[in-house]
Amino acid sequence: MKIDLVVPLIKTKMKLLHKIFLSLFRPGIWESKKKRYDVLLFCHDHDRGYKFNNKAYAQLTDSLCDIFKERGLSVISIATPFSQVTGRLAYNNPKNINRQFLWSGITDKLLSLCKIERLCARKYKDRVEKLWIKILSTNSPRLIIAIQPTYKLCRASHSLRIPIYDLQHGVISDSHPSYGEVFKKEANPKDLPTGFLCWDTSSANALDKWATNKGCKVLIIGNPWFKRFFERSKCDALVQKSNYVPIFKNRNKNILVSLQWNMNNFYPEQINNGVMPTCIERVIEKTHNHFNWLIRLHPVQIFNGEKKHVEKYLYDKFGTFVNVDWVLSTNYPLPVILTYTTLHITCWSTVTKEASLFGIPTALLDTEMRTKGKRYADYLEERNLGIADVIDLKEESIINWLMANVEKIRLCHHNSKENLNYDELFNVLTESKVSVI
Fold this sequence. Notes:
Blueprint: H1 3-23, E1 39-43, E2 50-52, E3 55-57, H2 61-70, E4 75-79, E5 95-96, H3 98-113, H4 121-124, H5 127-139, E6 143-146, H6 151-159, E7 164-167, H7 181-184, E8 195-198, H8 201-208, E9 217-220, H9 224-231, H10 237-241, E10 253-258, H11 278-287, E11 291-296, H12 299-303, H13 307-318, E12 324-325, H14 327-331, H15 334-339, E13 343-346, H16 351-356, E14 362-364, H17 380-384, E15 388-390, H18 395-405, H19 423-431
Parallel strand pairs: 1-4, 1-6, 4-5, 6-7, 7-8, 8-9, 10-11, 10-13, 11-12, 13-14, 14-15
Antiparallel strand pairs: 2-3
């Protein structure tokens, strides 16, 4: 890795650790009064990719929070360790549990160094699981919904007989290490959630290959964040406040580029700037007068310290181009941006699946999605339907793809409202008669 990329990353990592350290002194879960809740929501800073009323907003879990509250249910949010954005900084005031988990980690280290872990194995073996049990018992939820819950959290939930569901937040396929059949066939059912809440049929089918045999439920509820923008209820303050103001006042076609984080570890020969493939960089430089380019940062880039490096690179490279934007393109809600997008380019972003709801073709630059590649099964349905194409990491390939697809009429291959069904989810909640003491 180049030294000019390493130094900024080290600095940003140090700042991140400093913020996490300060978060240890914020009020935690134990400072709140013990109360029984209907629903407990878990997510991390990385999942809070939107700002609403100057608070970090988790598009998926907070959308469910609003829906539950509309039904008169009580909802509490907890930020998974080691989140920085907690309390008043985020929507629904997520509770901070960093202090408890840091102490647990320090205790483990001390016991290991003192070489008494084996002697105290029976007492300390399930320390983290017991901590989760204590947290859950404090809030007594009837239902838990989390983004990729850990196996310790799942075990704690099962021990208290509280149903816990994993809410889809990205691609789910046979080749995904967290959701693919080959990776999960030996999994202990106790380490798995009660069920999975999926966006669509293809995601559910990938899980059905193994999850149902493990006793997990697989429910299709749609994408909660996109649901509200499809419905555009007049009572939805968030949607009503997010009306799109055109970024460019011209008639050029809008091309969306979805960035990924930690790109330094992928395709070093093609991505030597730490942000995007060099071939995309060159295409933008050559076509910025012909197309409008919307560059969207990944939420993790915003929270993990990459943001300054990414924004500096974008400013240095495209700052003088009037038809290239990355500020508003990142800050606007994705469903709004996609409404005005013509084509989408990415390496492997989940925006591929979300763009398909609008009939927007995607160019996938990840060569591992080709036959026998590590991620061959990713977006297989979209590729089979012709709404996504895997193309070479070459300037010529990207330009040819743009010209071949830019005038195509957008046809949604998904019925975007077909799977937006929360009835099964509310049935789970209705059937849950958990009493945690």
